[in-house]
Amino acid sequence: MDSGIGLLPAAAAVRRLRPDADLLLSNDPDGMPWGPRTPEDLTGRALAVALAAAEHRPRALIVACNTATVHALPALRAALEPDIPVIGTVPAIKPAAAGGGKIAIWATPATTGSAYQRGLIRDFAGDAEVTEVPCPGLADAVEHADQEAVDRAVAAAAVLTPADVRAVVLGCTHYELVEERILAALEARGRADDLPSLVFHGSADAVAAQALRRIGAEPAPGAAPTGTLSVLLSGRPGRLPAAALAYAEGRGLTETASAH
């Protein structure tokens, strides 16, 4: 679940681990974006999206949205667990910091500098030097597949990112859809020859693996690709928005589902 297409990376990660998994994508076109909403309003929207999905009796629910995880995870778990395990999405600060050196965290303006993110840095960054990079407009540009707006937002955030960072944490699920463009923008600024290649840390793979663990399922990437794909749009059955097909993750999900 997510307000929009930020759920695509996690869904694609689940599909890679279990090609036989039936996926239900529940988002909220009527209420998006969630970021500017009050925590109480956002929690209400997230609960509606989650409860609509719960009617289909999934084995687990992935909250594929950093903002919803911050504000709504306790309410979602109270409403659905233990019947339906709820897996939140947290920026991958701990693995990014494991190698030491400098790291940057790209996140929405609301998350950047927040008590939530500062707490994660305090608890998991260790001795790594961390730069928080706000990315105004990037999630919205990705959501609408507005390529020019994506490039502008990425370029602006790249300027705020130290040229000698070793790793970049993508602190919004939408950003994983444009990882290659973020990499190109950062490399275009030039890096010293003695610096290692940039490493990106998203959350999708870890979240997908955790979802399987929570339901006692093993990864089976070689399983027959029999998994189905269903979509809920603010609780109504529908299809992925056209913007989702601008990304490899969206195309891959629809192609594998339509193949059978």
Automatic annotation (TrEMBL):
Keywords: Isomerase. It comes from the Bacteria. InterPro entries: Asp/Glu/hydantoin_racemase, Asp/Glu_race, Asp/Glu_racemase_AS_1. PANTHER family: GLUTAMATE RACEMASE. This is Glutamate racemase. It comes from Streptomyces cinereoruber.
